[in-house]
Amino acid sequence: MSVIDRRAFLGTAAAAGFVTAQSANATEEVSAEELSQLGRTPHTKFAVNIEMWWKKLPFLERIKQAAAFGYPAYEFWPWERQDIDAMAALSQELGIECAQFTAWGFSPGLNDPKNHANFVKKIEEGCAAAKKLNCKKMTVVGGNDQPGMTQQEMHENIITGLKLAAPIAEANDIMLILEAMNIRVDHKGHCLYGSPPSIHICNEVGSPHVKINWDLYHMQITEGDLCGHLREGMKAGQIGYLQLADTPGRNEPGTGEIHYNRVLKEAYDLGYRDFLGLECRPKTTELAAAQGVAAADVW
């Protein structure tokens, strides 16, 4: 089809049963218009992670669901396993953007120099995929601990690798966003965690196209004081992208200990206007998760 009319799409979605959904407590009949308003939040532009939402659906159907929920963008993990041409065509038809995807994952480690030549090659290939998707950011991961290397040595190797890739990112006008993990719950043995070393690495690389994928879930587990560290990251000019999930559980806002209304307001007051990734697992249903996300954007 040609560039799709959003209202026409939502009408089709309703006819296909897209808008009968399970809320946290009961089955809810939600009109297409009501559904489409959930992702159109007043302050924050959310990008739903389609690896973690609608997991039982085929991948392209998840993009349709993200559009039906009114989200302006989506994000996903390694691009190599997806049909990028089909994703690009569907995204254009639905009028939804790709906020970011993963260009380099946990293994092989960016923190080992023997992988740098392959890393540069993968960044070149990732940039080509990003251009098809009209996507401006790609996540890169530092890697798990390397036997016989100190943490400082591994971080220096990450700096070296990112310096090799930075000119490619700059030439393609695509930002590489380095994600720090947490080692207490999800990624034991990962070499990069917390904001201070992440800021240091990006400062050392010294490129406007290499910044941090600042995942608030990982940062809460690692260091807490989310608003204080956000201020430090913004002052350093090294926050390239934000993601969220509540903790414990890695579910949507309102299910754990983080007061996301306060955190999202802080990010907004600090001038963050880019997409914010919903890298969280719906605790019960996608409808309930979207309602929780929308409630967190109210202040």
From TrEMBL:
Taxonomy, superkingdom: Bacteria
EC number: 5.3.1.22
Pfam families assigned: AP_endonuc_2
Annotated GO MF terms: hydroxypyruvate isomerase activity
Isomerase as UniProt keyword: yes
Keywords: Isomerase, Pyruvate
Active site: 179 (proton donor/acceptor), 279 (proton donor/acceptor)
Xylose isomerase-like TIM barrel domain mapped to chain residues: 64-287
Broad EC category: isomerase
Family recorded in the similarity comment: Belongs to the hyi family.
Protein's UniProt name: Hydroxypyruvate isomerase
Organism this protein belongs to: Symmachiella dynata
Gene: hyi
